[in-house]
Amino acid sequence: MLHSDEGFILNRKAYGDTGFILNIFTRSHGKRAFFIQGVRKKKKGSAALFQAFNLIQFTHYDGKGSLLRMKDPQVHPQLVQLYDSPPRAFILQFLAELFSEILHDQEEHTVLFDACKHQLITELKEEKFNPNLHLQLFCKLLFSLGISPQLPDLINGKCFNLIEGEFQTRLSDSHILMSGENSRYFYQFLKESQLDEIDGKHRLSLVNDLLKYLDAQCEWFRGTKSQNVLGEIL
Questions:
Q1: pLDDT tens digits for 126-175?
Q2: In this structure, which long-range contacts are made by residues 148-152, counting pairs with CB atoms below 8 Å and at least 24 apart in sequence?
Q3: What range defines the domain where residue 49 resides?
Q4: Over the stretch 78-106, which tens digit does the pLDDT of each residue have?
Q5: Based on the domain organization, do 31 and 146 belong to the same domain?
Q6: Of 55, 65, 145, 184, which residue is least crowded by CB atoms under 10 Å?
Q7: Residue 89 buriedness (CB in 10 A; 0-12 / 13-18 / 19+)
Q8: Measured between alpha carbons, how far is 31 from 128 in angstroms, rounded to an integer?
Q9: What sign does the CA torsion over 45, 47, 51, 56 have?
């Protein structure tokens, strides 16, 4: 029996002469592996369908194994122009790597999926590149993983402890605390409140702090490699 689903491409590798094995963050089943044949020798551009963090709609066959067969993939109609912005393309590659490394197979994260989809559709509707997209979705990821910190009423004089996962006064060793500036940015992203102006240097610094936080909280997380490119383009 065929089922319909949609999902974000996390990574791909060649499968046979004409196919791909795809890791996809799906709405219905969380992260799952699929295979599809006959796409690498089709007309030019068909492989572009499977770019990192593209949102595709597809059908797949029933199966209890770890690898399901996919049919009829197509880009979500509201996100066809997702890769038209080179800076956004680098953000999408980072998000794909991050989600691939942190999400467990077949563990549902429907709220996270819907948040990612809504954020991307909104950005394209507004026709304005959002350089903070990865940080906003990083915070959604923390919430979905159950490690989003409780927020104090006021952030003044507090820093975020990367080990204990809470905002606190500066009493701990400095190497396990975010800087006051990064703590303030993090607090604002979590509250989805008015954000102080943040430049590329501080975006990268905050991303690196959040990766340290994931590493401290999630023992299976192996880190990412693509974040440094963000500092060069944003």
A1: 888 999 999 999 999 999 999 999 998 888 889 999 999 999 987 666 77
A2: 148/190, 149/190, 151/187, 151/190, 151/191
A3: 2-79
A4: 999 999 999 999 999 999 999 999 999 99
A5: no
A6: 65
A7: middle
A8: 29
A9: positive
